[in-house]
Amino acid sequence: MSDAFLSVRDLYFTYDDGIEALRNVTLDVYRNELFVLFGPSRAGKSTLLRLCNRLSDLIEHTERQGAITLDGKDIFAADVNISALRRRVSMVFAIPTPLPGSIYANLVYGLKLAGIRDKGELERRVERSLRQAALWDEVKDRLDASALALSGGQRQRLCLARSLALEPEIILLDNPTSGLDPISTATVEESLYELKQRYTIIMVPHSVQQAARVADRAAFLLNGELIEVGRAERMFVHPQDQRTEDYITGRFG
């Protein structure tokens, strides 16, 4: 029996226009690893990410076959509380979207929705999540300032902190450094090394180079199919499938 934390088995996903976004995908993700999904546009990476916390439910007229289990439990089972699932499996999108209001208000919004009202607990989670997202030192003296006044890199780290405040078990990152400058990108990447000590991370990277830098294990997707999966130090040096090698080396076409 697999000791994977999150398992995808024989997964198919089709949109209402007949496009098969995922076809027979099977893979495992283990605790406290940074697992990367990489491949060209329309490979199915973001679709798979959204299936992992059922954001796919928000898309009408789709069809799914196969299973995803979290810690052995089918996430699509009838008795699954979707709100609770999304607290366990949190998502950070490519475009950072702070809420109107202060930095502090952004961080406590989800906590209050989850029923947390104790001021001391709220403040503890705000500070810890900002530290984990490598943002605390930059904003600790202006938590009442508008979140919309932050730079692009700071906004992305705020959105990451907002997810971390809910103390998830898995963090889904959909191209989290898209549009960021190299310094902000490096800051986000550095925070990932610390975060995976506490969380499991599944990430769609900005580039093959980023995938090779940050991944523990990686999966190459092409036209909705899983082509290859394995340890990053092997895949990005000695890929087993010619299509993976062509994509990594830029010969893909």
Properties at a glance:
six-stranded mixed beta sheet; four-stranded antiparallel beta sheet; alpha/beta; single chain; globular; Rossmann fold
Structure overview:
It is a single chain. With 253 residues, this protein is an alpha/beta fold. Helices cover 35% and strands 24% of the residues. It contains 10 helices and 10 strands. It has a 6-stranded mixed beta sheet with strand order 6-7-8-3-9-10, sandwiched between helices. Strands 2-1-4-5 form a 4-stranded antiparallel beta sheet, with helices on one face. Helix 3 crosses helix 4, helix 3 runs parallel beside helix 6 and helix 4 crosses helix 6. The chain is globular. The mean pLDDT is 93.
- Domains (count): 1
| Mean pLDDT, all residues | 93
Strand content: 15-25%
Strand arrangement, major sheet: 6-7-8-3-9-10
Helix- and strand-based class? alpha/beta
CATH architecture verdict:
3-Layer(aba) Sandwich
Q: From N to C, what is the helix and strand string? A: EEEHEEHEHHHHEHEHEEHH
Number of strands: 10
